[in-house]
Amino acid sequence: MSNFLTLNDLTIIEIKELLQDANQFSKGAQWFPAEKRYAVNLFFEPSTRTKSSFEIAERKLGIEVIPFEIDKSSLTKGESLYDTVKTFEAVGVDVAVIRHDQDGFYQELVDNLEIPLINGGDGCGHHPSQSLLDLFTIEQEFGSFENLNVAIVGDIMHSRVARSNAEVLKRLGANVMFSGPKEWFRTSYLQAGEYLEIDEVVEHADVCMFLRIQHERHHETAALSKEEYHQRYGLTEEREKRMKKDSIIMHPAPVNRNVEIADKLVECKRSRIFQQIKNGVFVRMAILKRVLSH
Amino acid sequence: MSNFLTLNDLTIIEIKELLQDANQFSKGAQWFPAEKRYAVNLFFEPSTRTKSSFEIAERKLGIEVIPFEIDKSSLTKGESLYDTVKTFEAVGVDVAVIRHDQDGFYQELVDNLEIPLINGGDGCGHHPSQSLLDLFTIEQEFGSFENLNVAIVGDIMHSRVARSNAEVLKRLGANVMFSGPKEWFRTSYLQAGEYLEIDEVVEHADVCMFLRIQHERHHETAALSKEEYHQRYGLTEEREKRMKKDSIIMHPAPVNRNVEIADKLVECKRSRIFQQIKNGVFVRMAILKRVLSH
Amino acid sequence: MSNFLTLNDLTIIEIKELLQDANQFSKGAQWFPAEKRYAVNLFFEPSTRTKSSFEIAERKLGIEVIPFEIDKSSLTKGESLYDTVKTFEAVGVDVAVIRHDQDGFYQELVDNLEIPLINGGDGCGHHPSQSLLDLFTIEQEFGSFENLNVAIVGDIMHSRVARSNAEVLKRLGANVMFSGPKEWFRTSYLQAGEYLEIDEVVEHADVCMFLRIQHERHHETAALSKEEYHQRYGLTEEREKRMKKDSIIMHPAPVNRNVEIADKLVECKRSRIFQQIKNGVFVRMAILKRVLSH
User: Residues C154, C30: contact at Cβ < 8 Å?
Assistant: First the structure.
């Protein structure tokens, strides 16, 4: 049995195997578990992309998905997360994908579960399937991470992908830089990459990964209006013109249009934003295959 | 690729083809897409009939249905309808059925989507799959629309089927008449059919289509109590007795029992109300087949 | 057509047939309806275990499950339970599982429905699939009910399984005893079994079935704190030590840990609590097979 909790738990070889499997799936490869399998997606926070992506990935692998809605479950009677997951294990579910607003929610679960757990995003912690689809999208574009300039721009502190992406990109040989509001930058991040102003970033980066301003997670930067944020830290149409030839734009979505990225650029030629969503399915098929094969 | 947005977009030949397909499905015919297909049903307004009918129709065609709940989606984080539908397109969904409270919600979507869209009801606009099942139920009963007297009774102004049903019935050769509260009748409707009092209607109509009073959509006619409405505009037991031999009662449901129609008549011999629901599945199979075949 | 509403409706022979079928399913036996079948699970009260258990049971039998959420259905427009279930019948659903907070909700339904109904729990009335899985778990453990001492401990009055379990256990030859707060005990229960203090119960019972304190159903016993309840009526670690060799602990779950049962005992060697959940799937497969075979 093997959980999928953070990318930090994985060796570079394991990550490359996952990317290779995702690549095979993107080219139409098929894989099915030997026996009928059941999955449950326990999403304690809103999600369109990640949830539907897991749903499709599961079905493409022939896995049956058991529906679950928190607000109609026994959680409303005070049942704990642990007892809820144990219940799904007992009824015969073979894998649980969980998104939860508590950092490291999985720590109290993993020791007592017999079924694999996939982290679908924990608080401000990790979001390893998103990280993996980001890596896959970059590899698909450039073939390799070696010496690639990858900029991570925006709300680094609250993002569940920024720091783990930076760390794994560095391990893979990329050159990481950060940008965005300085109050969301910590000196501890310097070991992964340096801080640059957005105007420098756009001229040097091969990949500009913008992060979503998570209005739903923090309220303290209300000081800056959306227009001001866009002008100071966002990808304006003017800045896009100064980007390197063949460089690409990424964003985990949903994009706050005209905040992180100008509306017109969301579906522009450089944008890989919807390609990322597409790749998410292949990456999640690879993750499910991995945890169900062990 | 072909959307299914309003019946007005379709020629009489296309409508007859759909009715013919629905008829085949009602007799047990089978049709499956060449490859595995995925559907999503995005319902922004409550629904039991239309949603479950599409769900069953999709499954009968072997289509996998990806669940979606607005209140657990990224729409709660401010994501737009457009970005939501684009996301489902990106994860690999092949067709989206959408019900939305905004008239013509699909106009901002269709130009930029690559997957077909099915209108599951837009505000006070259209509800083409309901219209089609109404037509199918009439055809099933009478074999033809030629010279048939069809009455549409009730809240014509707010109904998403009244006006488009009237228009298409006229194109098909039927004779349309309207009844119900005059404040919900506009002189513009006269080009489709004349206005008659309910007591005249019941004696002349072959088909009495009652419309639901949509308490959830308008509040201005609270002047009339339910009992008063029933007595003045509804199908009372007394009026039913005066209906023509072989004439039928229809209603899109849910019926406000003892308002539009007397409780005892909802499942009476003349009533085709549950037959309409049954037919809805066959009609939606025909619609799905159409949009997935193009 | 055959409904599954209460265990009282069934003969001992029918109950034993169901237990035998459940036993076959627990050993990997397969059964599929001759044709494709559709189910709907209408849960008007929160549920994790019962709902997911039916979901899995349905899928293991190859039955397609049509999703339903009350708060997105036409029930929000005032549609009745009857019209809702009739609608599912009309769209082609073959079996409906219903949980509802109204005792005997099914009485107004059964006469006019053509599809079988399974009671997934009605108010403080019955919960026959839970009762059956309790019986199955006991039979699995002891092989027979004859002369077995079965204690039912806790909130007997509000429980939907206590009284019907007691009645059927007696019919099966077991010796039933009750314990818990006396204000939740009625002299009418004495015909099924006698009342004993918990300290006596633990020393005599082969099976200790604890009932959940349903905070969501009644508020009048707030007089007792959770700690006090646990000390006076619950299974403390000290009491467990005095239990008979080979006796078992049962609970329908969710357990209020440290109220009905000490936290440490929930997954102890004597506990069959997660085994009960596991057995629930097999029992529900047997029930579905029964109602779909008639």
Answer: no
